Structures are given as structure tokens and as C-alpha cells.
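Morning!

As promised:
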Amino acid sequence: MSAETDLAAQASTTSRSILRLLKDPLIWLIVMAFIVGIITSPYFLTPLNLANTIRNSAAIGLLSLGMTMVLLTGRIDLSVAATMVFSVIVGVAITTQIGAVLDERWIVRGNSFVGPPVLAIVITLLTGIGVGILNGIGVAYLKVASFIMTLVMLTALRGLSYIFTNGAPFYLKGATFDWIGDTVYLGMPTGFLIFLAALTVMLLLLKGTVAGSRFYAIGGNEIAAMYAGIKTARYVVAAFAISGGCAALAGIVLTARLKSVEAPLGGGYELTAIAIAVIGGVSLAGGIGSPWRTFLATVLFALGLNLFGLWGVSTSYQNLIIGLVLIVAVGISSIQQRMKQE
Amino acid sequence: MITFNKRNLLLGALAFAVTPFLSGTWALPAAADDSSVHTVLNGLIGKYSDAARTGMSNDDVSDLFGRDGFRDYLDAYPVGDLAGGFIWEPGMGATFTGPYSKLEIKAPFTDYLPMPEGPVLDPSKTYRIGFVFHGFNHPWLISLADTAAWEAARHPNIEFEVIDAEFDDNKMGQVIDTWIAQQYDGIVLWPAREAPMGPPVDRAIAAGIPVVSLDRRTSSEKISSEVLGNFYANGLQQGLFLKQISDGGKIILNRKDLGSTADSIRTGGFLEAIGNEGGYEVAGNYHTKSQRTLAFKATADALQGIDDVSVSFNTGGEEAIGALDAIREAGRLNSAPGGGKIVILANDDSKEVLKEIADGNIDMVAPYTPLIGDIGIRAVIQHIGAKEGLNEAPPKLIMTPNLPMITKEAMDIEGVKTVTPDQWLYAYGPKAE
């Protein structure tokens, strides 16, 4: 094939992708939200407001990405928000213990963490992945329903978080946490860039590898996938591990912004993560969905909340509107599922 | 390097309280009338604190006091005069219908940092003030919002926005960030927890927006003002009352979250008051998180295991009602040794608690009024005025007046004249039938 033909094919693929993108109603909803924002509030387009909006989307977006992985396999993970907080608490607690062994005092003046942040972050990530693996083993090998397994995990992790902190916060000190929580590059907060990085990795995994397609296969028809030779249990464990890892990453982003972590943080965020994934078109029955659309739904959700905030809409009405949107999204998801089965 | 921890923050707040007086940036208040309840209670706090510092003869109380580190919290908790030499007397304050609860409210402190009705500061300008709190589902917090909204509505050039962050600290931070982006003129908040609210408050202050916290504190050292309650007087009065009516007995404690200001100062003040009385024994110690159901369960369990409970100490009104329900359900109201009544001690002067006092079921309550939102609004307006060079800034620390305990019959306990439920005009929440 000649170079010209290659180029032509590539251009055709790109234009097809752009056309497909423009057909996505989420894109149009985001554009509409922007237009409405610009018309209704003089503050909407300010760099500070835009940075706030996308920064606020990072932690919940990461939770939603993890949730997307689990939902694709036809399972659910109710423990994501508890994992998010628990992982950071364990990260700080274990790093502090390591410090004690090394004769270093990394918790000062009661509850300020001044230890090496990179070590704490690594332990946080490992803890999140570990929690995910436990969930996955319970679901895939012990055959516990994912709803039950992760609900029990949620309760246990919330309790453990209180025990490890004795109900008090850890203050997170140091330049690394400031960098993650506060810095902005070309209008993009670091937390949001971390979210984009996780999205890229997940897109590469799901769309660019054979292993990725197997997650869809398991969610679409698990028995058929098994007969096709896919070791489904391993993939289910992997999906939960990715969800746990994303939750830990969300924990790092969230707590770096608040400069502290404590047990009650993020209560109920698991439901928001499910809502965003479903609004993004992920089927609750598994097999359908894309991290890209979850990303779009996250941005749309953050824009919506920002507009409500700028308009001064009370939280009760915000909840009502979110609930209505969710009902519509679940309805569409259910219709899609029925059409797929037919 | 500045470090944020509980002790530093509390000590920092104490420094905030003292610094303006030392630097002369705030007019020294006139000496308070020695007979005012605020001064009398501050004197008693000093007396019992000194005694407890010397030592506690009751080993059981002393052990708990030491184990939970009450000394650190109590030492750092500010006790002092009221701003501008204000003297509060029972009967003061305005009466109005709460904009949110639709209930009739008599707010005790509307004459504190007074501000006449009408336009404020520059009448040609409109000032936008945001009020963020948690809990449109909680009577105490609705009353807090009621008083804030009432004060804002008295000034036609104030544009007032109220947001309920629904106990989500991250959301409260996001609300504050949105108001920063919108260049609000002032922010008043009720933070549920200290730690996560420091960074957003610091960002607002850095953006030149004055911020005032109500009741609870944030981890910000830069906050414009803190309107603080009278936790110390609450716990102390519970102890004084108990000492007055009994010689000892087994106590069940229903406490708030470990480490919360309400728990550490109220319970600490209570333990200081009884720490040198030999007859008391802490038989049960529970953290029931301000929840009636948890207090019910903890008390019911304690009653199962302990035959001779004499006292139920509760750090809040919800806990006290939960404890009372458990005691009544177990048929144990009059099961204290010698056939006496179990003494129930409460905080928070809801109408429901007051009714139980009038009925003789709860024995005393130390009022902790939510009707302080108006002080926060006036303080933030004064801060905005100070920024514009129109007036002096209010003090960093604005103590609310100590309030006398409420008992079924009027009593005089170490100089504190208690009031009866029918004399107490400031109870909040829905009427109890």
C-alpha cells in the first residue's frame, strides 16, 4: 500500500471518529452547559471557576472510572468511597510506623503527617489495589454477590478508618500534597491531569488490548466467555483491583485538596460514582460502556453542579434534579439492554 | 514551619483572643458586671479548673480525665469577656418567625455587636454574603440558619445565599470555592469538622473575602472571626448541679465524637466539677455521636449490665432524650440506689428537653443555643466594612455569653441562679406535646 493510501485511510478514520464523537449527546450536553453558563453567569468563564469545576471532577471521576471497570463485568462496587478514604489513612498510618522503626518522627504535634509523601502515596495505592483484590476474590472465587461483598467491605472499611484514626484527622503537610491539591498547569489542576492520565491508561487497556475486550465479553455473556476459554474469575478480580486502585488515586487527589484525611470523608460518593457511570452509558447489566463516556459524564456532572452553585440553587433541588437525570439514564440503560437481548 | 494540630489550633485561637487586646486594635471592653451570669460562670470555671489542676481526689474520674487528654483541650479553650463589654441579661433579644423553620424564635443575642435595621456600610452598594452549613434536617441547625437569614433580611442591601452542604466537607469546600470565583463580599460557615475546612477558608481569605465561623472551628489560622459557644459553662454546670443534689453514684456517659470540641470541653468541664468528690464512679462511657438512637441503645445496654445506675450524663439534648427513652422503657426511672430517681443531665435547650424538665424526667439542661447565626452575619458585615475603611473590625474571637442552667425549680447553685422552663424564652425547635 502506498503512503498516499495510508494517509487517506488515516484521515478517513480520524474524520469518522470525529463524526462519531459529534453524534454523542453527552458532547452536545456539555456544549449546551457551557453556553448556558456563559449566558447566565459572568463568572462562569473565569479561569478560577473553570479550574474549580474540573478540579472538582477529578476525585469523583476517578471513582467513576473504577466503577466503570466493575460494571463492565456485570458487577458493582459499593466500597469505592470507603476505599478512597481508608487507603489514604492506611498510607499515612503505615508510613508513620515505618518512620517509628527507622527512629523518625513522621507524625508531629499530635496528628500532622510530615513523613515522605511518595512512600505514603505508594502504600495508599497498594492498599486500594489490595482492597480491590479482596473484593474480587470474594466475588469471583467465593461467589459472594458483588452487592453484598462490597457493602460489607464498605462497612468494615468505614469502621477500620475510625479505629486507625481514633476519630481524629491526619493533617497532610508538605509540598507534594500542595502540588497535587493546588497547582494548575495551563488552566488544568494537577488532580484533573491525574484523572486524565488514569483515563488514558484505561482507554489503552480496554480499547487497545485483547485483555480489555475480555472485560466486555465477561459482562456481555459470562458463560459464553468462559466456554471461549477466558479465565473469567481472574478478570473479575482484576476489575475490582483497578477499581480499588482508582479509589486510592481519588483519595490522594481529594485529601491533597483538603490537606487532611479523616474517617467520615466522602460518605455516599459511591452512589454518585454509579450515577455518573450510568449517565455515561455504562450498563448496570455489564458489557456496555466506555471510560471515555464516563469521562464525559463526569465533566457534564461537574459542570451541572457548578451551574447550580453559580445560580444559588439549594441542595434539595440539586438532589432532585440529579435523581431525575439518573432515573432517565437508568431507563435508557435498561432499554438498551432489552434491545441488546432482542 | 507552621503545623496544624488540635492543640496548636486551640492555642492559636486563644492567642487570637488575646492579641487584639494587647495590640490595641480593638477597643478594650468595659469591665463586665461582676454579678452577670457570664462573669459568675467564668469565675467558677477558673475555680474548678485550678482545683482539678492541683489534683483530683476521685481516682475513677481522674483516670478518665487523664486518659482522654481533657487537660489539653480545656487549657486551650478560650474563656473570657464578651466583645465590646456586652453584658447579657435574661429577657434580652428580638422575637421573630424563623424564615426556614416557620417557628417563633426569641433570639438571645440580637443586641450583641448591635447593628440597626436598614442598609449597611455603603448604602449604594449591594453586598453578597454566603452562608454554608450542614443540616436542613436538624432542628438545632435550622435554628442557626433561621437567625442568620433573619439578620441578613434586616438589611436591604445584603444579598444572602444559604447552602446546605449535607455533611459533606468536600462539598462545603467546593461551595466556598464557587463563592470565591463569584467574588462574594463575605462568607459565614458552620463547619462540622475542623480539619478539612481550613484550606477553603484560607483560600477565601487570600482572595480578600472575610470569613466568620459559627459555633465550631476550622483549622484556618487566618479566619477573620470565630463566634464560639459556651461549652465550658455547659459541662461545668452539669457537674455543679449533680454535686448539689447528690453525694455520689454510678454515672453513664453519653458523649459526642471523640476529639470534638463539644465532647472534650463539656465532658472535661463536667469531670473537673466532680473530680474532687469521692462518691462518683464512671460506670459506662459511650460515644453516641449526637444521635438519639445510639444513646438509647447505649443506655439500654448499660442498664442491662448495671443494676445501680444513679446518673445519666449527656453531652447533647438528643442523647438525653434517647437516654430518657431507654430508662423509661426499662422501667428504671426510679431505680437509683435507695429508690431514688436516676438523675439525667443534658445540654441543648430544645423545647422537647424543656418539656421533659417541666415534667420532672430530665433534671437539668445547660442551654447551648443555636440562635447565634445573627452574630456571624453582623460580624462578617463589620469585617467587610473594615476592609472598606468604614468601621473597625470586630474581634477575632467572639465569645457568646454563658447561659444559666435550667431546672424544674429555681435554685441557687454556687451563685448561679437557675431558671425554670417557663422562664426560659429561648428554647428552639418544634413545640413538644
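Residues 189 and 324 of chain B are 33 Å apart (CA to CA).

Hope this helps with the figure draft.
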